[in-house]
From TrEMBL:
Organism, scientific name: Parasphingopyxis lamellibrachiae
One Pfam family hit: DUF4402
InterPro entries with a match to the protein in the record: DUF4402
Signal peptide: 1-46
Lineage, uppermost ranks: Bacteria, Pseudomonadati, Pseudomonadota, Alphaproteobacteria, Sphingomonadales
UniProt keyword annotation of Signal present: yes
Keyword Signal: yes
Protein name: Uncharacterized protein DUF4402
Keywords carried by this UniProt record: Signal
Length: 189
């Protein structure tokens, strides 16, 4: 054996005898912790990303009343009820039951509204069910309403909305001026 080798072997045996199991566990734990800290501290595993935040503000939907729903002048039948209807279109065409006499054609019209909103978006039309009868303060006549559309496509200009309806006139309906108010709501989809 070479003289230097023997002294190294002697030194290793001496170190091995001096280490107890407890000391060996401590050395192993400390070494493992140093390795873990060393690996976790490197910037090689970190990553960063960015994102933008945006918001688009739209003009509010607006609705403006242009004309009222007008059934014109009606003379009831003495024996049977009848229905008068107004079409939900620009013409506001009136259809009068055969047993009724309808006059005042010049005043007949569908209700019309102009709706404006952001170009290219759709608007829902709601709220037509609120009016169920016309009244003269004492007497009533049932009414149902219908719109020209439940969805309007906005074009950047005013889009028309028409409301028509059907009015049930009883036999011998008392004379008077019958009226009622309804609302129409519009909002973006």
């Amino acid at each position: 054996m070479v003289r230097g080798t023997r002294s190294v072997q002697f030194y290793i045996r001496k170190v091995e005898k001096g280490l107890s199991m407890k000391n060996l566990k401590t050395v192993f734990a400390a070494g493992s912790a140093m390795i873990a800290l060393g690996l976790g501290a490197t910037g090689a595993h970190a990553a960063t990303a960015t994102a933008d935040a945006t918001a688009e503000i739209l003009q509010q939907v607006q609705i403006a009343q242009v004309s009222d729903l007008n059934f014109g002048t009606i003379v009831p039948d003495t024996a049977a009820s009848g229905v008068v209807s107004i079409a939900a279109n620009a013409a506001g065409t009136r259809n009068c039951a055969a047993n009724l006499t309808c006059a005042g054609a010049a005043s007949v019209s569908s209700a019309s509204f102009n709706v404006t909103g952001a170009n290219g978006l759709n608007v829902d039309v709601t709220g037509l069910g609120g009016l169920t009868q016309l009244s003269d303060g004492t007497n009533n006549m049932p009414i149902t309403l219908g719109g020209s559309s439940t969805v309007l496509a906005m074009t950047g200009s005013a889009v028309p909305l028409y409301v028509g309806g059907s009015l049930s006139v009883a036999a011998n309906q008392p004379a008077g001026v019958y009226s009622g108010t309804f609302s129409v709501s519009v909002d973006y989809q």
